[in-house]
């Protein structure tokens, strides 16, 4: 997937400035597709030049005017074309998994703090996802009945929740294994 597609989806959900788009990437889309602020601004400029986006100047009190981006008809067509193309299943690169395998050639217990750090990061992300789910989809302020956009956003979020839960369970298994191996006599 190209960053352009993630930007098109985000701007179709809600037009906004480059800054607002970068904030959305930090809050939600960025958990599935990351980009720096510089990358986002560079791609927005290119997409505007290619006619995929429309831009309007928005006056602000006491600050410089901002550019607000929205998807133009050619951008909608590009997203539609991409949505109809097949996507290959992703293969993952998992540096921690390689380290865990490599621990067979060193001290497995030395990885415990690193695995615990990863586990805590995944627990924090899961808590963030669950909080967002409560706020946006299952809590009292959630749209009833939800529209197609909310349903599809929610199913992606549920995938993130499931992934984090699976990863935490796996890290718990890794920790139990590392602790067991750390208690084993050297060379066992």
TrEMBL record:
<protein>
    <submittedName>
        <fullName>PadR family transcriptional regulator</fullName>
    </submittedName>
</protein>
<dbReference type="Pfam" id="PF10400">
    <property type="entry name" value="Vir_act_alpha_C"/>
</dbReference>
<dbReference type="InterPro" id="IPR036388">
    <property type="entry name" value="WH-like_DNA-bd_sf"/>
</dbReference>
<feature type="domain" description="Transcription regulator PadR C-terminal">
    <location>
        <begin position="92"/>
        <end position="178"/>
    </location>
</feature>
<dbReference type="Pfam" id="PF03551">
    <property type="entry name" value="PadR"/>
</dbReference>
<feature type="domain" description="Transcription regulator PadR N-terminal">
    <location>
        <begin position="7"/>
        <end position="80"/>
    </location>
</feature>
<dbReference type="InterPro" id="IPR005149">
    <property type="entry name" value="Tscrpt_reg_PadR_N"/>
</dbReference>
<dbReference type="InterPro" id="IPR018309">
    <property type="entry name" value="Tscrpt_reg_PadR_C"/>
</dbReference>
<dbReference type="InterPro" id="IPR036390">
    <property type="entry name" value="WH_DNA-bd_sf"/>
</dbReference>
